[in-house]
């Protein structure tokens, strides 16, 4: 006899080895690594599954990060569907300068929007590997991280019930505004922060890319960038005052500025389309040290934020997740503590390398619009050097691709 009873989710656990707070790329990658090793864990996420699978975010993934996902069985769709980019183009002084970093290094970028990656990771974790995940939870709190019996509490969205899950470790992967970063003892935490004093108007346009690669416009009116996302959707950025109101940027003004700042001799005009997203990002970075306190390990934006200037944020989150997931498995299945002991140091070497490159690249992008003739002159000198010095070109390509940071 076939039962027609509706399928119900299993009851929430009262104890698991690891609780992962946050279902972004970092948290879901950690969860997948644990489940692949048959380690039980619970992922808690304040948003719905539909929301995280549609939230517009980054789209550029470095090759080493893709290979890390592939090694862990998490890159099938990515490898089938991602676009490969092996060049970028700078536009300054009214001219176009193509930078073929693939020819210099043999490496390339993968363009795969973060919502697609998150969708893949959720399906693999929850549907294929049987991982437990709770969406829409509220009032998440982390407790007793300096003991060997930490716990995480939350409110169930369906019943309003207060639940407590005990664990051995907490992975804090809930982003810049999450609760896990706030759980670090303030007397033991240093937050190093840098504000660029500029804003970027982040735009999504229902329009095909106007070039086959990323475009960087270094213009006296401000930076502009084109980042292809798919054949139908393109990400654009426009430098603007920090804290600017997106409503100050109607359709006509946006496209006029993009045409001006990305214009160059011989370049085809941009293909315009409906703007489906407009928001202002104030450019800043921060690094939280230490990334570990007791049994709480931070990863991704909970531990560090790098402005989207160099498209490094999702790559850093994946780097953290690889190290943390592997270290937790080594400890929980074999008693090897070396990975957990060296986790923060290994993460921070790459974090600071990427932060330094982001600062350098910010000057290249924004120096010509600073209103300072001396600064504009040195910025143009940097740009010209990329196209006249093989050594400068090789150094830039290594940092742009992340291949210089082999940690």
Automatic annotation (TrEMBL):
It comes from the Bacteria. Pfam families: FAD_binding_3. One of its GO terms (molecular function) is oxidoreductase activity, acting on paired donors, with incorporation or reduction of molecular oxygen, NAD(P)H as one donor, and incorporation of one atom of oxygen. Residues 16-357 form the FAD-binding domain. Keywords: FAD, Flavoprotein, Monooxygenase, Oxidoreductase. InterPro entries: FAD-bd, FAD/NAD-bd_sf, RIFMO-like. NCBIfam families: PRK08243.1. This is 4-hydroxybenzoate 3-monooxygenase. It comes from Streptomyces swartbergensis.
